[in-house]
Amino acid sequence: MNHPLVRVLVHSGLCALILVLLSACGGISLPKTSALPALEQREAIERLTTLAQEPLPPSVETDYLISWNILGSSGRVDAVLLMDEPDQLRFSAHDPLGRTLYLAVSDGTNFTMVDNRAATVRRGRVDGASWRSVVPEPLILADIVPLLGGRVHGLTSALSGQIKAAQNPEQTGYWFVWQDSRKLSHHLLLDRERNLVARHLLVDKKDTILLDVSYLNYGLDEETGYYWPKTTEVSGSIVKGKLLLERQGLLSFDPLPVATFFLELPSHFKVEQLR
C-alpha cells in the first residue's frame, strides 16, 4: 500500500468515493454501433427522454463493499454512503469491527475529511484548489447521485434535439450520444428489455473516455419504486485501475436530517484549513 493512489483511496473517505467514480483501466475504446431505421431511432430517443424525466431519489442511504485494483495494488473496504439531492454527501469507511476509520462530509459548499485514527481533520471549499485535487475537472458533486444510481441527469429539452441513437452490436440495447454544457460527450447504453441504463461513458473532446460506468444488475425498492444498482463496475482514463461497488444490505430513500451533513468534531482533533 505504498503507492500514493492506494494511500489516497484507503486513507481518505472522500477520495475513496471519488476514485470509485473515476477509477480506470487502459485500453478502453468507444463502443461500436450500427444505424437504426428512422422510425426506431425516434422511438428509442423517446424512451430515453421519458427515462430522463423520472425523478432522482431526493435522499439515498446505502452500504457498499468497495473493491479496487489500482496499478497492481488491491484492497477492499466497507463503506456507508448518504446523499441528499443535489450535492450533499456523507461517506464513511469502516474496519471489520464496524468502527469508523475515515469520514467525509460535504454540504455542497464546504467539505470536511476526518481521519479518526490520526485525529486529524482537513477542511475546505468545493470551489477551491484542494477540492479539485480530489475531484478533477469537470466533475461536480451533483454528478454523483445520477452516476451511482444509473440515472439520466441534465438532459434538457435543448439537448434532446441533439441526441443521436444507434443499435449495439448484440441488438440488446440502444446507444445514445449527446454533449452537455461542459462539452462532455455522454455515451449511454439503454437496455432494451428492462429500459434501465446498462452503461454510461463520459468522453472529452479528444475522445478520451474519462469515466466508464457499467451497471451489472439492479434491485427494486418495492416501497418507493426506485431502481438502484446492486453491482457497479467503474473504469476510465483519469486513474489507472478498476473498482467494483457491491451494495450490501441497507438501502433507504427516507429523508435525511439536515444534521447528517454537518460534523461536530472532538476538541482534541487537529484541524487543517485548505484553500
Tell me the strand percentage band.
Answer: 35-45%
The CATH homologous superfamily is called: Lipoprotein localisation LolA/LolB/LppX
Given this structure, which CATH class is correct? Answer: Mainly Beta
- Global shape: globular
User: How many structural domains can be distinguished in the coordinates?
Assistant: 1
> Segments where pLDDT lies below 50 for 5+ residues?
1-14, 16-26
CATH topology: outer membrane lipoprotein receptor (LolB), chain A
Task: Give Rg in angstroms.
Answer: 19 Å
Can you put this structure into words, describing what you see?
By secondary structure, this protein is an alpha+beta fold. The protein has one domain: outer membrane lipoprotein receptor (LolB), chain A (Clam). The protein is 18% helix and 42% strand.
Give the topology.
Layout: H1 4-11, H2 13-22, E1 23-24, H3 38-52, E2 59-70, E3 73-84, E4 88-94, E5 100-106, E6 110-115, E7 120-125, H4 129-134, H5 144-149, H6 157-160, E8 164-167, E9 173-179, E10 185-191, E11 197-203, E12 209-220, E13 227-235, E14 239-252, E15 270-273
Parallel strand pairs: 1-14, 7-15
Antiparallel strand pairs: 2-3, 2-14, 3-4, 4-5, 5-6, 6-7, 8-9, 9-10, 10-11, 11-12, 12-13, 13-14
Helix pairs in contact: 1-2
